[in-house]
UniProtKB/TrEMBL annotation:
Name of protein: Nucleoside diphosphate kinase
GO molecular function: nucleoside diphosphate kinase activity
PROSITE patterns in the cross-refs: NDPK, NDPK_LIKE
Domain (Nucleoside diphosphate kinase-like) ranges: 2-137
Lineage, top ranks: Bacteria, Bacillati, Actinomycetota, Actinomycetes, Micrococcales
Entry's EC annotation: 2.7.4.6
Organism of provenance: Microbacterium plantarum
Length: 137
């Protein structure tokens, strides 16, 4: 079924000039860009977005990292796009993410307190609805 998901090109992806390469993969896969914008989220937005991670050891470094520069927020649509984008992105840890995925091809461990893994994609229809509301209102 046609659905929508929130994709973020995180600050590391934007800073490294990988936005175009990442968008090219999303477009080549055939998903539709419904809305896209450059954002500098404040802490409140990030606290809502990452509420499930509050209290974890990487939580504060994560919020700091996400405020280190702009991200690109994308409302992306297509049949099974939630699952499909997560497959394009690869697993959370960029060191072991499969080659051929965004994280596997462009990411690595930089020895920091937080995994800088280039992109975010909603993990369920419920998360997608919640996160799209946070980032696009
Ligand atoms: P994402 O899955 O989009 O949302 C949570 C983020 O926290 C994740 O991307 C990584 O950037 C980061 N993260 C998740 N797990 C860890 C971990 N074990 N150590 C450091 N950072 C993590």
């Amino acid at each position: 079924p046609t659905e929508e998901t929130l994709v973020l090109v995180k600050p590391d992806g934007v800073a490294r000039g990988l936005t175009g390469a990442i968008l090219a993969r999303i477009e080549a896969k055939g998903y539709a860009l419904v809305d896209i914008r450059l954002v500098e989220p404040d802490r409140e937005v990030l606290e809502k977005h990452y509420e499930e991670h509050a209290g974890k050891p990487f939580y504060e470094p994560l919020l700091e990292f996400m405020q280190s520069g702009p991200s690109v927020a994308i409302r992306l649509a297509g049949n099974r796009v939630i699952e499909g984008f997560r497959s394009l992105a690869g697993t959370t840890d960029p060191t072991t993410a499969a080659p051929g995925t965004i994280r596997g091809d462009f990411g690595r461990d930089w020895g920091l307190a937080v995994q800088q893994n280039l992109v975010h994609g909603s993990d369920s229809p419920e998360s997608a609805a919640r996160e799209l509301e946070i980032w696009f209102g």
